[in-house]
Prior knowledge:
Low-confidence stretches: 187-203, 207-213
Number of strands: 8
Amino acid sequence: xxxxxxxxxxxxxxxxxxxxxxxxxxxxxxxxxxxxxxxxxxxxxxxxxxxxxxxxxxxxxxxxxxxxxxxxxxxxxxxxxxxxxxxxxxxxxxxxxxxxxxxxxxxxxxxxxxxxxxxxxxxxxxxxxxxxxxxxxxxxxxxxxxxxxxxxxxxxxxxxxxxxxxxxxxxxxxxxxxxxxxxxxxxxxxxxxxxxxxxxxxxxxxxxxxxxxxxxxxxxxxxxxxxxxxxxxxxxxxxxxxxxxxxxxxxxxxxxxxxxxxxxxxxxxxxxxxxxxxxxxxxxxxxxxxxx
Length: 292
């Protein structure tokens, strides 16, 4: 009996993307080896590190992040301008160097959006870090990435959970990791109330608020608004292109910009795989009988 081709679609979710690390660890423990990996936004970054054999260092780095360290990496301008992301992606280059997508042993696609046409762009070759950078260019937050003659922005604008890409590349069974399933309506659950200065205790997210007013900053408004749009797009696309297995980490209580909560997110990713085990086993049994 031949092994079924498994596709792994890693969805967008900004800081919540650290949950992908937990999902990948749990999948590895199950002995599941993806034959295709497609990622959108933070999913492209984690998926690229995973296939390059550097998921461990990425996890170690993510767990080491503090609010102050992340602010330094992002170089957040008080004027509200866009971030270059230079320092953040220099860290990625430290591990990946000039590695090309073609050097990966498993087919990999990073999803990006053409800023001028709105077309979905599949990045399947070239420098791995460049593809990650383009897919993670959240509009209004990170500057667009110029690549292959196009200005590219976040892939989540067109395909937040790229199930369709996995199938197009030959996956027989597709596993989707949707970071938004537990999100909308829960973004502020568990958040501390504003103090006398109007600032909440929402860690990194509170750093994006106007000092002394408690109002969401331009960054917070932009990121949250885009997330609402992406959530609606993801729901629509997943309804039309349903995956065979969906893994839904329960992370709606964690802020979009709370990169310093990797421990919780990674654990949530592992727990999500445990909950999905019956669904995974059933799908493997069905597809093995169909393609055996």
